[in-house]
Each structure stands twice: as structure tokens, then as C-alpha cells.
Specification:
Layout lengths: L5 H8 L25 H8 L14 H14 L3 E5 L2 H12 L5 E5 L4 H10 L6 E5 L4 H9 L4 E5 L11 H10 L3 E5 L4 H4 L9 E5 L13 E5 L1 H14 L5 H11 L2 H20 L4 E5 L9 H7 L6 E6 L2 H8 L7 E2 L9 E3 L11 H6 L6 E5 L5 H12 L1
Parallel strand pairs: 2-3, 2-4, 4-5, 5-6, 10-11
Antiparallel strand pairs: 1-7, 6-7, 8-9, 9-12, 11-12
Helix pairs in contact: 3-10, 4-9, 6-7
Bound molecules: pyridoxal-5'-phosphate.
Length: 389
């Protein structure tokens, strides 16, 4: 039989029939510690000679189930989970990098990620070159000079640029660098970076994976060896996912494909509406034919995602008037949820950055990020119409 599709896998991999109770949903195992009747079996599990769990900072059955489903959806051997997306990102960077090494990345990745390259890693004598994500030649040339890790995000948050992952991963492989891709915006439904050559794929599971605005989480997917290195760092530093959030994320994955397909469709329609609106000076969405990377996105992605951004004429002053008028969009710092969420990068993706840092990262101050939910798209468009009029 061919491999089942995303919806089938999402629904069935998230079930597990309990041999005693026949309950079919994955249980929330809230235990901190797991007890053994004899020291020998305890030690065999503790030394990873036998499967099992010892202490939930290290591993937990509910969290393990979430990791296995995510590895399957991303098409990788293994995955390890974290308390948040940033815990996954910072742990990956600190697990894999040492003083004297060099990172090549892009300047318009998620704000807190960008600050790792400009503020945190340089403190450990790790050189970080953050480049223009539209300059693929420049990125390739920087990688060819020799580097240890290439960190990418595609589409980017919040300006929705699309990087040629196959091309950049190939350049990284030529110099033996590890490639890490943040796939939060695309989700495994729209894009699988490992199939394009990435070594590690990261998600802020807080976003589309959760989708119900009620759990934080992060995950790193990749080969057993690399994920093992990241896991080891997490085991020692402690940013583990909690079992209750893991349960919520597992529950959410059952509808991930359904939600993302609706969000892809809604975002495209909203983007098409906004680009014709006289109050909007520019729309950023890879699904629009005039997007600079539309052809690449069409080749690389199965859908263009549920987030778009736009520039409002009149900048911040207009944003302050328009956003509170929206009735079907919450002003909040999240995305990928069933409800539409809207906000400027200054209050969302780049809230940790100063105005100068946002300008350096190429983020216009008048930008609005609009993360569509699964509402009826006619209602979202009517809502935008009344707010912009
Ligand atoms: C692309 C991307 N990566 C990582 C993160 C960080 O995730 P978390 O908020 O779960 O730490 C975010 C948060 O918005 C994000 O948008």
C-alpha cells in the first residue's frame, strides 16, 4: 500500500488502543517519576538499554507520542519536544555550536531567533552572518567560505519571503554544515524541509500544530543522531514539554491537515482582496503571482500557508484606527489558530526587537500581520471591508 496521506496519518497515528482499558485516545501521563520493582530493570531503562521512562524531564509517554507523530509528518527518523518553539531553537543552536564556529542565517527570521544571531551566540564567540534572504547568491557565497550551521526559515515571519531550501541545503552540504529549517509557517502539510535536504526541522508547535490557542510547545525533527545531540542538551538543561500540553498538541494534530487547507484557501482569498484595496499599498503572500518567489513557492510548497502581511497607507496611525475595528480578528501575539489573529510586528513577531533592529531586519513599521483562521472567508473579507472603509 502507498504511504497514507496527511489527514489519515494525523488521525490514526494520534490514537493508541490501551491494552487494559481499550481507551483509544492517547492518555495524559502526568507522572514525574516512573517506578521499578527491581534495580536491574530500572538501570537498563536509565542507561537506554531498554525502552521506558525514568523521569519526565528526560522522557514521558505522552510527549514521546507527540514526538513520534511529528517525526512521521516531517518524514524524519526522530524528533524531540520542547516547552516552547524558542526552547527548541535555542537548544538546537547551543547543542550543536561551539566557540570559534560560524553560522550563516537570514536577517528576517522570527525576532527572538534573529536576536540569538545578533546578541546571544556572539557572546560565546560564535560568528553569525545574517544575510538578505532574497540574495541567494550572497547566501551561497557566505556558506562557501566555510560554516558549521545554516539556519533558515521559509516562509519568513512576518514578510513571507520564500527561500530555495533545496539550493541552500545543497550549498551547506558541500561544506559539511548542518542545515536547520524553521517550518512553523509552512507546517508539514504544506512543506517538508527534510525532503529538500534539511538536516533538522523545527516547529513552534504553539502555532499551527496547536491551532486552538491553548498550548505552548516546540519540536525538532531529524536524524536519530542529530536529534539525539539536541535531546541530550535538553535533558541536561531541562526545557521539556509538559504532558498536558503534549496531549493538547496530539489532539490538535488530528485536524491539522483540515485546518491548514482551510487556512491556505482563506489566506489566498484575503490576499487577493487586499491587493485590490486602495488603502493597502502592498500585500506579502507567496500565493500571489506577483510575489517575487511565487514560482519557487509553487515548486517547493503544497500550499502557501495561513499568514499574510500587508502595508497600510498612512502607517502606524492608520493601523491604530483600523485594527480595533475588526470584529472577526483578535489583536494578539499568535498565529496559526482557528480564529484570525492580527497585529503589527512591533507587537507580535518582533516585539523583543527595537525599532532600529526591526528596520535592520527589513520590517516596515506600517506592516500588519494577518494570520487567518478557519472562519468563512466571506466574513473575513466583509470584516476587512468595513474596517478599512
Ligand atoms: C516562525 C517562528 N518560529 C519560532 C517561534 C517561537 O515560538 P514560541 O512562541 O512557541 O516560543 C515563533 C513564534 O511566533 C515563530 O513565529
Amino acid at each position: 500500500m502507498p504511504q497514507a496521506g496527511f489527514s489519515t496519518r494525523s488521525v490514526h497515528l494520534t490514537n493508541q488502543i490501551d491494552p487494559h482499558t481499550h481507551a483509544m485516545e492517547v492518555p495524559i501521563v502526568l507522572n514525574t517519576a516512573f517506578a521499578y520493582k527491581d534495580l536491574e530493570s530500572w538501570l537498563r531503562v536509565a542507561l537506554h538499554q531498554e525502552p521506558g521512562h525514568i523521569y519526565s524531564r528526560n522522557s514521558n509517554p505522552t510527549c514521546r507520542h507527540f514526538e513520534e507523530v511529528m517525526a512521521d509528518l516531517e518524514g524524519t527518523e526522530a524528533a524531540t519536544s520542547f516547552s516552547t518553539g524558542m526552547a527548541a531553537i535555542s537548544s538546537t543552536l547551543l547543542a550543536l555550536l561551539s566557540p570559534g564556529q560560524r553560522v550563516v542565517s537570514i536577517k528576517d527570521s522570527y525576532g527572538a531567533t534573529y536576536l540569538h544571531f545578533t546578541q546571544i551566540l556572539p557572546r560565546f564567540q560564535i560568528r553569525c552572518d545574517v544575510l538578505d534572504s532574497e540574495d541567494h547568491e550572497g547566501i551561497e557565497a557566505a556558506i562557501a567560505q566555510g560554516c558549521d550551521l545554516v539556519y533558515l526559515e521559509s516562509p519568513t515571519n512576518p514578510t513571507l519571503k520564500v527561500l530555495d531550501l533545496r539550493r541552500i541545503c545543497a550549498a551547506a552540504a558541500r561544506v559539511g554544515a548542518v542545515t536547520v529549517v524553521d517550518n512553523t509557517f509552512a507546517t508539514p502539510i504544506n512543506q517538508n524541509p527534510a525532503a529538500l535536504g534539511a538536516d533538522l526541522v523545527i516547529h513552534s508547535a504553539t502555532k499551527f500544530i496547536c491551532g486552538h490557542n491553548d498550548a505552548l510547545g516546540g519540536v525538532v525533527c531529524g536524524s536519530r543522531e542529530l536529534v539525539g545531540q539536541v535531546y541530550r542538551y535538553r535533558e541536561l538543561t531541562g526545557s521539556a514539554l509538559d504532558p498536558f500540553s503534549a496531549y493538547l498538541l496530539i489532539r490538535s494534530i488530528k485536524t491539522l491537515a483540515l485546518r491548514v487547507r482551510q487556512q491556505n484557501e482563506n489566506a489566498l482569498q484575503v490576499a487577493r482582496y487586499l491587493e485590490r484595496h486602495p488603502a493597502v499599498s502592498r500585500v506579502y503572500y507567496p500565493g500571489l503571482p506577483h510575489h517575487p518567489n511565487h514560482d519557487l513557492a509553487t515548486r517547493q510548497m503544497r500550499g502557501f500557508g495561513g499568514v499574510l502581511s500587508f502595508d497600510l497607507k498612512g502607517g502606524m496611525e492608520t493601523i491604530e484606527q483600523v485594527l480595533p475595528r475588526l470584529r472577526h480578528a483578535y489583536m494578539a501575539a499568535n498565529l496559526g489558530q482557528v480564529a484570525t489573529i492580527v497585529g503589527p510586528p512591533a507587537a507580535t513577531s518582533h516585539v523583543e526587537c527595537t525599532q532600529e533592529e526591526r528596520a535592520a531586519a527589513g520590517i516596515p513599521e506600517g506592516l500588519v500581520r494577518y494570520a487567518v483562521g478557519i472562519e468563512d472567508v466571506e466574513d473575513l473579507i466583509a470584516d476587512l471591508e468595513q474596517a478599512l472603509s
